[in-house]
Design a protein that fits this description.
This protein has four helices and five strands. It has a three-stranded antiparallel beta sheet, with no helix packed on it. A two-stranded antiparallel ribbon has the order 4-5. Helix content is about 30%, strand content about 10%. The structure holds zinc ion (2 copies).
């Protein structure tokens, strides 16, 4: 079965792994695959998340929790920051069990381009969910 993206009912974090690590809530399944979500621009993604906020998680969503979660994520360091360090992190499941396909040094230029903006040459593979990016 293809994994799908899931959305946290409280903070609307949109990831492939089931539990929201901030709210400790199980996320709700969407019909979007990680592949599709990676092909979306930031704007499309934002619109999609807004759509789910108005439909799927309307009754439980709290913008304050979302703000707190975003601040928390920053304090944890963005997943992309790890490109510059020793290890990379899977953007869909968050696993650090990833391997570099063609070297981590390209990470800086990927960051500069905006990671969701378009298809870029994939340079990492996740050993947990098999995703490449
Ligand atoms: Zn959450
Ligand atoms: Zn993964």
């Amino acid at each position: 079965m293809v994994p799908t993206m899931k959305i946290c009912p409280k903070c609307a974090s949109f990831k492939v792994n089931r539990m929201c690590s901030f709210c400790k809530e199980p996320r709700i399944e969407t019909e979007i695959t990680p592949e599709e979500s990676m092909d979306m621009s930031d704007k499309q993604k934002e619109e999609l998340i807004s759509h789910y906020i108005e439909t799927l998680i309307k009754d439980t969503y709290d913008p304050k929790i979302r703000e707190e979660r975003e601040a928390w994520e920053k304090s944890q360091g963005s997943p992309w920051a790890s490109y510059q360090g020793s290890g990379a992190k899977c953007p869909t499941c968050g696993s650090t069990n990833v391997r570099s396909i063609s070297g981590a040094e390209r990470g800086a230029s990927i960051l500069g381009l905006g990671i969701f903006s378009n298809k870029i040459n994939k340079s990492f593979k996740c050993n947990s969910c098999g995703y490449t990016w």
